[in-house]
């Protein structure tokens, strides 16, 4: 299958890309619409894109990222969020080597980096990570540090993957790309949840943390609803919706996203290869297989069967 074709699995996000046009850049196009850019150029600049017909982005980005040490810095550029207002943090954000920083490719941040810094950038569609457009401003507000639980795991993996992708044979590179996308999806979901748990100290933060844990433990329960969640935490449904609205999400959207993430994970497991897609969907709380297939495609840009086939092909090719 062509990596630049119109297949849902390998399609590219339409737009005019500046990735790879700068001196000192190396670009590797991977399956699933993933591009990897490594830059050593000075001054440091992140790849940006604009939708067809849109005017060029302003020279100044929506925020400034500062690094005072040399080393490697990891970025995940999210496509498909054009039109969102820039989110202006109160202060500049200081990054350290190994940090993983999400950003909107339509509003790339301005970098203030030393000469001996290397950028490793992963460009992909937000839909592939199961993200709504409204998730992007919150996701890009703070980096994932290599001292965090998932950061400690993913920072070295992504760094090595960026180097390996350029020399790996096709089958190995394809499998690694699939793994990277799956892990980035998990990282994005956890990072959003951590931000919801880690708001400014007040009575809402521990309550929100308890609610999120409650939801995660009951994703397979088809009776999970705002009413049951509110009752379990002795609050009104109206107040529950208010808590989620302040986090820029809805109760239903969060539940659906977490269920979809679990379904997508299970569909890649060899131990579950004999389970039908309908059975996987039902286990994680989707009453209708048709509804599940529709929201899966809307979220990830491919059907559940295409996702399972992609994962299976990666396993088969890796074993050859």
Architecture blueprint of SSEs:
Blueprint: E1 16-17, E2 25-29, E3 35-39, E4 49-50, E5 64-67, E6 71-79, E7 93-95, E8 100-104, E9 110-112, E10 117-125, H1 135-139, H2 149-164, H3 170-197, H4 204-217, H5 226-232, H6 237-246, H7 251-266, H8 277-283, H9 289-300, H10 304-318
Parallel strand pairs: 5-7, 5-9, 6-8, 6-10
Antiparallel strand pairs: 1-4, 2-3, 3-10
Keywords: DNA-binding, Transcription, Transcription regulation
Organism: Streptomyces corchorusii (Streptomyces chibaensis)
GO molecular function: DNA-binding transcription factor activity; sequence-specific DNA binding
Q: Can you characterise this structure?
A:
It is a single chain. This protein has 320 residues and is an alpha/beta fold. The protein has two domains: 16-52 and 59-170, no CATH class; 204-246 and 250-318, Homeodomain-like (Arc Repressor Mutant, subunit A). 41% of the residues lie in helices and 15% in strands. A five-stranded mixed β-sheet has the order 2-3-10-6-8. Strand 2 (25-29) and strand 3 (35-39) form a beta hairpin. Helix 2 (149-164) packs antiparallel against helix 3, helix 3 packs across helix 10 (304-318) and helix 5 (226-232) packs across helix 6 (237-246). The longest helix is centred in the middle third of the chain and has 28 residues, at 170-197.
């Amino acid at each position: 299958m062509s990596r630049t074709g119109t297949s849902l699995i390998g399609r590219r996000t339409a737009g005019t890309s500046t990735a790879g046009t700068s001196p000192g850049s190396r670009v590797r196009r991977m399956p699933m619409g993933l591009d990897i850019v490594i830059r050593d150029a000075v001054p440091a600049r992140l790849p940006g894109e604009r939708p067809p017909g849109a005017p060029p982005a302003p020279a100044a980005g929506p925020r400034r990222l500062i690094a005072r040490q040399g080393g490697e810095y990891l970025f995940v550029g999210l496509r498909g969020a054009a039109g969102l207002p820039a989110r202006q943090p109160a202060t500049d954000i200081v990054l350290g080597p190994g940090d993983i920083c999400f950003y909107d490719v339509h509003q790339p941040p301005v970098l203030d980096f030393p000469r001996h810094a290397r950028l490793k950038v992963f460009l992909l569609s937000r839909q592939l990570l199961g993200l709504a457009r409204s998730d992007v401003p919150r996701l890009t507000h703070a980096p994932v540090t290599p001292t965090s639980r998932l950061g400690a795991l993913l920072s070295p993996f992504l760094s090595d993957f960026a180097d390996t992708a350029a020399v790996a044979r096709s089958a190995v590179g394809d499998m690694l790309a699939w793994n990277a996308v799956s892990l980035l999806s998990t990282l994005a979901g956890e990072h959003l949840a951590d931000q919801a748990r880690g708001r400014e100290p007040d009575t809402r933060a521990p309550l929100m943390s308890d609610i999120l844990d409650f939801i995660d433990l009951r994703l397979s329960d088809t009776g999970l609803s705002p009413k049951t969640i509110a009752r379990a935490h002795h609050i009104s449904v109206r107040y529950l919706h208010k808590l989620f609205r302040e986090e820029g999400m809805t109760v239903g959207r969060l539940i659906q996203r977490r269920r979809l993430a679990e379904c997508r994970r299970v569909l890649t497991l060899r131990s579950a290869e004999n389970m039908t897609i309908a059975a996987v969907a039902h286990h994680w709380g989707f009453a209708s297989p048709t509804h599940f297939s529709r929201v899966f495609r809307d979220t990830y840009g491919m059907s559940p069967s295409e996702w399972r086939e992609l994962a299976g092909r990666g396993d088969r090719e890796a074993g050859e």
